[in-house]
């Protein structure tokens, strides 16, 4: 028991390291220096850029996500299963690949408008998924009552359905906001400067200096602000319904004269978010394969990506296990604090985590600077919730009585774990590990900062080529990332799975 | 020789005492039932014996070995105590045979040692040995759980309300299978239950538990016929409370006189009689009559319980009559008392 608590505490400390570092840095540097670095015209511009893009993207994603979810889930649309998959499919295309596809087609796509278009197309599934899960779980009787009280379909939607969707909408919006604050590749490619891209530029010019760290402080504050706002707005409603995949029959509206416009709307979202990027990838793959394909580099990069993903998935799952076990089997304030801390840390943008790890390794563990273990630690910090969710669900399904029976039959701690617990939680742990693996494959920002010299992943190689406008050479790497992301994305389209995305 | 000896065991959760000085012994080869309402601490007692939790005070010995108390605590896996929890808790990733051999040494596990023998013992067909737990009915699952617990030949078997999740017909059948399996294995067992019928029909001895104490431990007939107090009397069956005047060892009630089981001094008292001691007799006009009105008849098939109101005093009593003849609702009948009444110093 004490061993379990101790190990869990160490894991929680490890993953909160970046947050502790940022807080420590800010306190250490003092208000005077931080304010001098933060209150500048340049930072004001970055703040304006970041805030307006975040708010606009949240609004657009909420609009597009909710509309499509309602059209697919609640109207008699033809081919709903296909549309459902297509509405989730953008998650398989990393935002920086999406922006690459668009920029290579429309080179003039820059600034606020372009950025808003790309992030909306990339991130609206984060709203679509929870809202459509929620729509499927709503009690149709409530809507029937509303109809019988004289409200039409719009009135019913606004007065009955929408209020019930609130937790899903808020949760989805929070994810959009956090993704946006962390987004680097897509916005950099669209030449739209935000905090994250500015931190990267500062890091490239003056390394992990005070300027970069001060910007990171502001970014962390923005993230925590989002988390707290969502918590505040959500209130206690969260507990009512989320996560129970009850299969109740829901009624579908006959769309009537709106059938065609509805179909056109869903289809155009699918074309813009999935069709166009895939077509551009296919085109550049064709162009690239005829000119610059180096199969050797491709294989080496793929191997390194897979290896990193595998190691990170195993490490994350192994480290998440004691915390998950503690939070399920020995629930209490201490366990909850540890469990929550792993979520808060992973809400930090990759650039902040990477910057903290760079500074910490240089200050305290010089030989570890830019080594694979530190990169894996960054992945562990960023993606632990993905492993945690699956593990907790799996552990919850193992009745404690099984453990007791096993011990009364003579099995000790180790034997119980190997013969009872492990076989039972393996599927959940495996699903979580797969999600971590796929997140690592498409991770760009931290990898750029932390990867050892000579280590190239699919994402960094793609980034290198596309930054130098070698679109053809970049295409195979993008295609591989998309292909590797497909299984996990398909997993998300299954109704019972409410994945915690990042 | 005793299989289990519990002395002065106390256990509190926070400042809420659950067990308050429990003393209990289980003789070798005997099935003892701990009977009590939910929340009386009986499951906690079981968990302390199994070693899933430690008592605050007191000692527990299995055979001659103290497993808890005097500064020792033997871990559950070293106690050799078989445990059958409420829902059976079969390992879902293992089939029937693998579940049964779980507690055996590795070599015997591989050989599926004793699987057929144990299946036969608990009354299951050999063909179920490769079924998965979810392919079994509730009763079958409980039997496999029992076989699994018996496989390592434990010194004591603990059964935690093992039949409560089964429906009535299956429950009787599974109970009988369990009792005969325990007899055949000559295993000592402690059964925890809130079902008085279950305790009475299965156990060699019943321990009545209330508010964290054992108030009486005796053979079922003794607990039913000579309960230690009024509450115990009620916990093992219906009991009528009657106002009485005691004179010369006889209690004079509104239904007539009845001898007392224990003598007490003369004066007013409350006494207890079982419904089967209240006899409904035809009003023949010869003896002293106690007229009563039939209010309700609860028909159970093998017998009926009749609720009556004594006309003279408005006292309500229950009478148990056997067979299919039941009195007409609203009819007036004559009542008599048979046997001896139960009476207690602190009434009732």
Automatic annotation (TrEMBL), chain B:
<keyword id="KW-0408">Iron</keyword>
<dbReference type="InterPro" id="IPR015853">
    <property type="entry name" value="ABC_transpr_FbpC"/>
</dbReference>
<dbReference type="InterPro" id="IPR008995">
    <property type="entry name" value="Mo/tungstate-bd_C_term_dom"/>
</dbReference>
<dbReference type="InterPro" id="IPR027417">
    <property type="entry name" value="P-loop_NTPase"/>
</dbReference>
<dbReference type="InterPro" id="IPR003439">
    <property type="entry name" value="ABC_transporter-like_ATP-bd"/>
</dbReference>
<dbReference type="GO" id="GO:0015408">
    <property type="term" value="F:ABC-type ferric iron transporter activity"/>
</dbReference>
<keyword id="KW-0406">Ion transport</keyword>
<keyword id="KW-0813">Transport</keyword>
<dbReference type="GO" id="GO:0015418">
    <property type="term" value="F:ABC-type quaternary ammonium compound transporting activity"/>
</dbReference>
<dbReference type="InterPro" id="IPR050093">
    <property type="entry name" value="ABC_SmlMolc_Importer"/>
</dbReference>
<dbReference type="InterPro" id="IPR013611">
    <property type="entry name" value="Transp-assoc_OB_typ2"/>
</dbReference>
<dbReference type="InterPro" id="IPR003593">
    <property type="entry name" value="AAA+_ATPase"/>
</dbReference>
<dbReference type="GO" id="GO:0005524">
    <property type="term" value="F:ATP binding"/>
</dbReference>
<keyword id="KW-0410">Iron transport</keyword>
<keyword id="KW-1003">Cell membrane</keyword>
<keyword id="KW-0067">ATP-binding</keyword>
<keyword id="KW-0997">Cell inner membrane</keyword>
<feature type="domain" description="ABC transporter">
    <location>
        <begin position="4"/>
        <end position="236"/>
    </location>
</feature>
<dbReference type="InterPro" id="IPR017871">
    <property type="entry name" value="ABC_transporter-like_CS"/>
</dbReference>
<protein>
    <recommendedName>
        <fullName>ABC-type quaternary amine transporter</fullName>
        <ecNumber>7.6.2.9</ecNumber>
    </recommendedName>
</protein>
<dbReference type="Pfam" id="PF00005">
    <property type="entry name" value="ABC_tran"/>
</dbReference>
<dbReference type="GO" id="GO:0016887">
    <property type="term" value="F:ATP hydrolysis activity"/>
</dbReference>
<dbReference type="Pfam" id="PF08402">
    <property type="entry name" value="TOBE_2"/>
</dbReference>
<keyword id="KW-0547">Nucleotide-binding</keyword>
<keyword id="KW-1278">Translocase</keyword>
<keyword id="KW-0472">Membrane</keyword>
<dbReference type="GO" id="GO:0043190">
    <property type="term" value="C:ATP-binding cassette (ABC) transporter complex"/>
</dbReference>
């Amino acid at each position: 028991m004490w061993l379990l608590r101790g190990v869990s505490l160490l894991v929680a400390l490890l993953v909160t390291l970046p947050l502790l570092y940022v807080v420590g840095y800010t306190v250490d540097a003092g208000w005077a220096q931080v304010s001098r670095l933060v209150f500048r015209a340049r930072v004001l511009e970055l703040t304006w850029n970041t805030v307006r893009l975040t708010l606009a993207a949240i609004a657009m994603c909420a609009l597009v996500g909710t509309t499509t979810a309602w059209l697919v889930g609640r109207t008699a649309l033809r081919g709903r299963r296909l549309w459902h998959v297509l509405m989730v499919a953008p998650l398989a295309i990393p935002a920086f690949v999406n922006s690459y596809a668009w920029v290579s087609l429309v080179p003039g796509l820059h600034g606020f408008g372009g950025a808003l278009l790309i992030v909306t197309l990339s991130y609206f599934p984060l709203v679509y998924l929870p809202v459509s899960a929620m729509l499927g779980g709503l009690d149709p009787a409530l809507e029937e009552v509303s109809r019988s009280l004289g409200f039409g379909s719009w009135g019913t939607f606004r007065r009955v359905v929408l209020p019930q969707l609130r937790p899903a909408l808020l949760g989805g919006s929070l994810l959009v906001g956090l993704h946006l604050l962390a987004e680097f590749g897509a916005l950099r490619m669209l030449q739209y400067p935000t905090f994250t891209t500015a931190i990267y530029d500062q890091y490239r010019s003056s390394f992990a200096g005070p300027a970069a760290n001060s910007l990171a402080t502001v970014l962390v504050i923005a993230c925590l602000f989002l988390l707290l706002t969502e918590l505040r707005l959500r209130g206690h409603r969260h507990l009512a319904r989320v996560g129970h995949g009850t299969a109740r029959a829901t009624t579908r509206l006959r769309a009537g004269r709106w059938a065609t416009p509805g179909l056109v709307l869903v289809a155009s979202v699918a074309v813009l978010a999935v069709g166009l990027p895939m077509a551009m990838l296919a085109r550049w793959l064709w162009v690239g394969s005829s000119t610059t394909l180096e199969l050797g580099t491709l294989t080496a990069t793929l191997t390194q990506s897979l290896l990193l993903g595998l190691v990170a998935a195993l490490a994350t799952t192994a480290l998440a296990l004691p915390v998950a076990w503690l939070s399920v089997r020995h629930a209490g304030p201490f366990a909850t604090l540890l469990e929550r801390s792993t979520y808060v840390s992973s809400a930090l943008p990759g650039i902040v985590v990477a910057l903290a790890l760079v500074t910490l390794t240089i200050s305290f563990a010089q030989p570890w600077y830019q080594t694979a273990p530190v990169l894996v630690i960054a992945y562990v910090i960023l993606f632990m919730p993905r492993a945690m969710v699956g593990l907790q669900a799996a552990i919850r399904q193992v009745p404690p009585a099984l453990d007791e029976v096993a011990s009364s039959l003579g099995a000790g701690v180790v034997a119980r774990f190997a013969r009872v617990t492990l076989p039972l939680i393996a599927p959940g742990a495996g699903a979580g590990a797969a999600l971590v693996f796929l997140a690592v494959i498409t991770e760009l920002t931290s990898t750029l900062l932390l990867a050892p010299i000579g280590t190239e992943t699919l994402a960094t190689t793609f980034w290198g080529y596309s930054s130098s406008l070698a679109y053809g050479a970049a295409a195979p790497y993008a295609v591989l990332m998309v292909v590797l992301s497909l299984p996990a994305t398909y997993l998300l389209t299954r109704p019972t799975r409410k994945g915690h995305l990042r | 020789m005793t299989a289990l000896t519990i002395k002065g065991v106390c256990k509190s959760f926070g400042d809420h005492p659950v067990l308050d000085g429990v003393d209990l012994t289980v003789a070798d080869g005997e099935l003892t039932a701990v009977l009590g309402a939910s929340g009386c601490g009986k499951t906690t007692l079981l968990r302390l014996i199994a070693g899933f939790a430690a008592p605050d005070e007191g000692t527990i010995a299995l055979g001659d070995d103290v497993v808890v108390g005097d500064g020792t605590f033997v871990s559950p896996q070293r106690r050799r105590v078989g445990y059958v929890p409420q829902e059976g808790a079969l390992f879902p990733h293992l089939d029937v045979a693998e579940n049964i051999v779980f507690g055996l040494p590795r070599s015997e596990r591989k050989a599926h040692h004793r699987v057929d023998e144990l299946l036969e013992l608990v009354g299951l067909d050999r063909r179920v040995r490769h079924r998965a737990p979810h392919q079994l009915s509730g009763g079958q699952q409980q039997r496999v759980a029992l076989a699994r617990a018996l496989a390592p030949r434990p010194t004591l078997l603990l059964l935690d309300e093992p039949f409560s999740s089964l429906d009535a017909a299956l429950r009787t059948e599974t109970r009988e299978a369990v009792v005969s399996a325990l007899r055949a294995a000559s295993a000592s067992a402690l059964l925890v239950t809130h079902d008085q019928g279950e305790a009475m029909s299965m156990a060699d001895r019943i321990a009545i538990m209330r508010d964290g104490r054992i108030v009486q431990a005796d053979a079922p007939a003794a607990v039913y016929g000579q309960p230690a107090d009024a509450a115990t009397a009620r916990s093992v069956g219906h009991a009528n409370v009657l106002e009485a005047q005691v004179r010369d060892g006889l209690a004079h009630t509104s239904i007539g006189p009845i001898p007392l089981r224990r003598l007490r001094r003369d004066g007013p008292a409350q006494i207890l009689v079982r419904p089967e001691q209240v006899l409904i007799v035809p009003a023949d006009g010869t003896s002293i009559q106690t007229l009563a009105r039939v209010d309700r008849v609860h028909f159970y098939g093998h017998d009926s319980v009749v609720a009556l109101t004594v006309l003279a005093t408005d006292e309500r009593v229950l009478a148990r009559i056997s067979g299919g003849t039941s009195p007409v609702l609203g009819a007036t009948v004559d009542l008599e008392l048979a046997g001896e009444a139960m009476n207690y110093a602190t009434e009732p």
